[in-house]
Amino acid sequence: MARSLSINDGEVLIAPSVLSANPLRMAEAVEGLSGEYDLLHVDIMDGHFVPNLSYGPDLVRRMRQEWPEVTLDTHLMVENPEQFIDVFAEAGTDILTVHVEVAPHLHRLIEMIRARGCIPGVSINPATPVEWLKPVLPMVGLVLVMSVNPGFGGQSFIPQVLSKVKALSCWKKAGSFDYLIEVDGGVTPQNVGEVVKAGCDVVVAGSTIFKASSPSDTARLLKKIAVEAKRSGR
Fold this sequence. Notes:
This protein is an alpha/beta fold. It has one domain (13-232): TIM Barrel. It contains 8 helices and 8 strands. The protein has helices spanning 26-31, 57-66, 85-91, 106-115, 162-175, 192-198, 207-210, 215-232, and strands at 13-16, 39-45, 71-77, 95-99, 119-124, 142-146, 180-184, 202-205. The radius of gyration is 16 Å and the shape is globular.
């Protein structure tokens, strides 16, 4: 049976992206957050769909062993994502997100993910029309809006993507769908309030958290600002 993902009204989830953690001290970096997070976000890059390489299923497997109660949010930035579903599901991820740009048979892919017991997610790049997602919105548990061009950490937020977040939030309410809206890329304490007011439920932050002088304090601050923005906008 597939896992489920939900939040309380007025809540926002914080998902530190381990791509920005020191790869030689990743466990230490995560422990240094002192539990000030809700999910751990894992970016998988193949050097084809994006111009970079990152981790494989063994990292997710070790994270599952190390932190069995943590929700693992795996983002596949890869070509031929159908070749990766089984290995990451077996590794123990909770959420498995694929890109609409590389999935001509997206319905089938989402069904495969759910059949493997994972929460299916779908993602779009900044230049991808948000309307591409409409046919699968009833099927997914997470929609990831990239607010930078994927492939590298530390990029600046692209504000034009907020219109996509707003559209997804409207469609969610109109259709009584239960997907969460996640935003990834360039989110900081300075813009997280605007992002959340647009309709974001899950905030991914990599460099903002792990490059900070106090990652735990920064994660806590992001959460505070985000929740205040969410509740003030209801």
